[in-house]
Amino acid sequence: MNSKLPNTNTSIFAVMSQLANENNAINLSQGFPNFDVSPKLIELVNENMKRGFNQYAPMPGIIKLREIISEKTEKLYNRKYNPETEITITAGATQALYTAITALINEGDEVIVFEPVYDSYLPAIELSGGKPIFLELKGKDYKIDWNEVQKVVTAKTRMLIINSPHNPTGSVLDENDIKQLEKIVTGTNITVLSDEVYEHIIFDGKKHLSVSTSEKLAKCSIIVSSFGKTFHTTGWKIGYCVAPKELMKEFRKVHQFVVYAVNTPLQYAISEYLEDESNYLNISAMYQEKRDYFNKALKNSKFEIIPTSGTYFQLLDYTNLSQLKDTEYAEYLTKEHKVAAIPISAFYHDKIKSKVLRFCFAKDKNTLDSAIEKLLKL
Ligand code: PMP
Ligand code: GLN
């Protein structure tokens, strides 16, 4: 077999969730909430199935959902996307990211990515014959060093992938980052692929700065979001992508043959659920409470808490607890102490000496309490 992805292993999320299940450990590894979906949203799905919306949706998604996404984007980020030509409903953010990368990256194109980097970008770049250019986020607040970015931009740079709020670190882009990014892309052929799946999970009064807030960036960006994150429905695999018409035209050429169209009754249900903006605007407060609860309890532990400004992930440094590599320590914690987390070296292409694990706090109080109790014993 001549593998197209010779260096790719099974995703760390699959590996750690399986290990957690096999060891009956509390699974704070793979990022998914364990509390209920809104009964109202479930009811809407049910109603729309009963109404008979069970056949193929239009290829880019039902227009009602695209219209309400357009309104939401305009209201929150002051940017208007045409629902007919500039918005597409996707089977989660994963499909949107894969589709965007394969639609735009040709053999030899360079794609700038920042480590720790979310795991789904690299295989898509590789399958397209692209070349990832790795830069590292700097310091405990995991910031982009824009001077470094400027230095690696070449005539071959075709894409730059950013993710804010950032998985796994919880760092968020600020206004200066947006300005620096504008400078980088001006006068180039670079498309920004902006992974904004955690747009509604941001803390401490910070505002999510979508690249769509910038006129310059909006013109050259594909933005990806996910209803899985926003509505605690990661298993529904539904999200969307917005981009200017010319980019969206290329995106849809691939989209139609990757998935054609996405789950119809969910699209109707979500389009109705989005009418009440509190359904997505209140999510940050709910998660901030969980973050604060988890961190307050762990203040007296031997872990060092690395501040998180968004997402439902918390990084903990275990330097005071063990000399083991993070992959080994994650395995040890899962097997011996029954708490599973993600070793962040999994988000780097080269083996790094990390002593940091990622914990998902999108869990009900009982689950968090049980995990806290175990972690405090270390
Ligand atoms: N991007 C990031 C940064 C993510 O964390 C995730 C999922 N956790 C995705 C993309 C994929 O989202 P989806 O489940 O909608 O495919
Ligand atoms: N994005 C989720 C995480 O970061 C996992 C998604 C997946 O399992 N592919 O944990």
Description:
There is one protein chain. The protein is α/β, with parallel strands linked by helices and 378 residues long. 40% of the residues lie in helices and 15% in strands. The longest helix has 16 residues, at 283-298. It is globular and about 55 Å long. The mean pLDDT is 97.
Fold topology:
Blueprint lengths: L11 H11 L3 E2 L11 H12 L12 H15 L9 E4 L1 H13 L5 E6 L5 H7 L3 E6 L9 H7 L4 E7 L11 H11 L5 E5 L19 H5 L1 E6 H4 L8 E4 L2 H14 L5 H10 L4 H4 L1 H16 L5 E3 L6 E5 L8 H12 L1 E2 L1 E2 L12 E5 L4 H12 L2
Parallel strand pairs: 1-11, 3-4, 3-5, 5-6, 6-7
Antiparallel strand pairs: 2-8, 7-8, 9-10, 10-13, 12-13
Helix pairs in contact: 2-11, 3-11, 4-5, 4-10, 13-15
This protein binds 4'-deoxy-4'-aminopyridoxal-5'-phosphate and glutamine (GLN).
The site of 4'-deoxy-4'-aminopyridoxal-5'-phosphate has 14 residues, from helix 4.
